[in-house]
Amino acid sequence: MPKTYTREQARIGVRAGEQFTVELESNPTTGYQWQPDFDPAALRLVGRDFSLARAAAGAAMAVGGGGIERFRFESLAAGTSRLSFAYQRAWEPGVRDQAQFEINAAG
């Protein structure tokens, strides 16, 4: 199972050929989504999904509520690269939030 990282873990250490997951809080019902930006020679986006946040004990899950957007990547080559995310609406200019990661891939 791939190791999971959050925005608090801005440095990601992997081996070339290894997969890892980045989790970011998100609420796509508002129109905002995380858009990844990376060097395709260094990383490959393997998968992307969203899951609602878990409700507190005894509380109902809110339709349209926020949750976690997950991005699974594969490291393609040894070296250092950047992985950045912009939280934005496709139809609006500007970015509401950003997340930055440094990927250190061993050979």
UniProtKB/TrEMBL annotation:
SUPFAM superfamilies per the UniProt record, alphabetical = ICP-like
Q: Where is the Proteinase inhibitor I42 chagasin domain?
A: 14-103
Keywords, in A-Z order: Protease inhibitor, Thiol protease inhibitor
Concerning Pfam families, the annotation shows: Inhibitor_I42
InterPro entries recorded? Chagasin-like_sf, Cys_protease_inhibitor_I42, Prot_inh_I42_chagasin
One GO MF annotation is: cysteine-type endopeptidase inhibitor activity
Q: Which domain of life is it from?
A: Bacteria
Give the protein name, as stated in the record: Proteinase inhibitor I42 chagasin domain-containing protein
